[in-house]
Amino acid sequence: MFLLGTHNQKLSPTQISELGCWHLSTVTRLLKPLKVKGLIEITANKEQHRYKCVSITKSGIELLDQIMDGEKKMEQFPLSTSHLSENELRSFLEYGQKILGVQKGDLFRKMLIDARMENYDYA
After folding, report:
1. Which end of the chain is more exposed for a tag (fewer CB within 10 A), N or C?
2. What span, in angstroms and rounded, lies between the C-alpha atoms of 103 and 108?
3. Three-state secondary structure along 45-72?
4. How many other C-beta atoms are found inside a 10 Å radius of the C-beta of residue 47?
5. Residue 44: in which H helix or E strand, if any?
6. How far is CA 26 from CA 18, 32, 123, in A?
7. pLDDT in single tens digits along all 123 residues of the chain
């Protein structure tokens, strides 16, 4: 849902696979329960009917907002960095971004780093 929320709320299963670094069969398996719960919609692509388009529903956006709000309150999400100096933390992030750029390309790295949900207060 986060990938849909940060990428114009519509992606193909292949795009989700690439962004999430998952096999396409894993994406298909992950999408089914989200569809059943009404958090996403899967429709045929209007230009190419054999291709699918996945979009997040209003209910999905509301749930994603709740999850992200809950994460704001967690002191150690996704991990505790309190023992690192600001310089160490910057170096860690720079190395991670460099590795990501080498493995997936700079365009992918930039797209991932710049991903933001519209109208969400990250503060």
Report:
1. C
2. 9
3. CCCCCCCEEEEECHHHHHHHHHHHHHHH
4. 6
5. strand 40-44
6. 12, 10, 33
7. 888 888 777 889 998 998 888 899 999 999 999 999 999 999 987 777 788 999 999 999 999 989 888 877 766 666 777 788 989 988 988 888 888 778 888 887 777 777 777 777 766
Question: What is the C-alpha to C-alpha distance for residues 59 and 34, in angstroms, rounded to an integer?
Answer: 11
Any idea which residue has 């600001």 for tokens?
A: 86
N residues, the chain? 123
Q: Which two structure tokens, joined as six digits, stand for 52?
A: 């699918």
Which amino acid would we find at residue 114? D
Closest CA to 106 of 117, 93, 97: 97
Cβ density class 77-114: b for 16+ within 10 Å, e for less: eeeeeeeeeeeeeeeeeeeeeeebeeeeeeeebeeeee
Place of tokens 């069969």: 25
Q: How far, in Å, CA of 121 to CA of 104, rounded?
A: 29
Q: What is the DSSP letter of 10?
A: E
